[in-house]
Amino acid sequence: MSNIRPETMERITTPELAQAFIDEQISLVQQQVKDGKVLLALSGGVDSSVVAALLVKALGKNLVCVHVNHGLLRKGEPEQVIQVFRNEMDANLVYVDATDRFLDALASVDDPEEKRKIIGKIFVDVFDEEASKLEDIHFLAQGTIYPDILESDGVKAHHNVGGLPEDMEMELVEPLKFLYKDEVRVVGKQLGLPDQMVYRQPFPGPGLGVRCVGAITRDRLEALREADAIVREEIGKLPETPWQYFCVIPDFESTGIKDGKRYMGWSVIIRAVDTVDAVTATVPEIPFSTLTTIRDRIIGNVDGVNRVLWDLSEKPISTIEYE
Ligand code: XMP
Asked: How crowded is the C-beta side of 180, counted as CA atoms within 13 Å?
């Protein structure tokens, strides 16, 4: 099938157009798959979530979603995937908590590329193992969208962890492959997904792994996850939120003082950027009161952190992520 978006395809901007797209895709997928079973790696990102919500409507329990928790997800994310897909949509969801496997393999690894490689490889291994436990699956669904096709030979961009096992001989099901991101969101809304999922900020496939700078330790990763939830909650209250906002935890300690005694603790760096295409990025103003609220909440609640910093660096020269 062609990988060029048909010229006649109208841009999906309204709930009505989204519904027409959903109805059409349901019927196309049913024709393609018939009574077969379809496997989907469901990360909880916008694209895979929209595919899951669409396919569960088309195929019911014949869609098998596998959610691999690599231990590097943000606070509440695996729980939300389970709540939305298993509890609310009654989807066939296999949840694999592979946290120990990932974190054990990452212990003492401080090279960013090596970290990415390990995360990608274990992801494929875990997914492969889960797939091999299932019988009679001949179709693989993917959240490929049109920019993936335009930018990278029709596979999900190299950034995504889920390069899937190459030896899986399955026919692809890619209902979003002609959609742009904004259209995917309109379709996701129409499918009833929560705003938190539909308008989710971009989040790297290797997750918090690239924001826990250097060799990941469980305690520093946990501090990052807690601090990140605070940063996202407080900046998320602003009338206009930046394009991407999160925090980073570097692998050095600095002096703090508590109960009259000096001690060493971690720093947390607030990173917020505005951009159109992530190729360049600027740093938006954030009200000082928001910054101090974040500081107080992090210092007061996140174990091991004794310093909060704000990153003012633009891209170029600084990349958005730290690794
Ligand atoms: P940089 O750090 O290159 O980031 O300025 C640009 C955008 O890409 C995201 N990013 C990633 N996304 N896997 C991903 O899926 C990755 O390894 C990765 N590294 C960076 C980053 O969050 C930003 O939006």
From this structure: 6
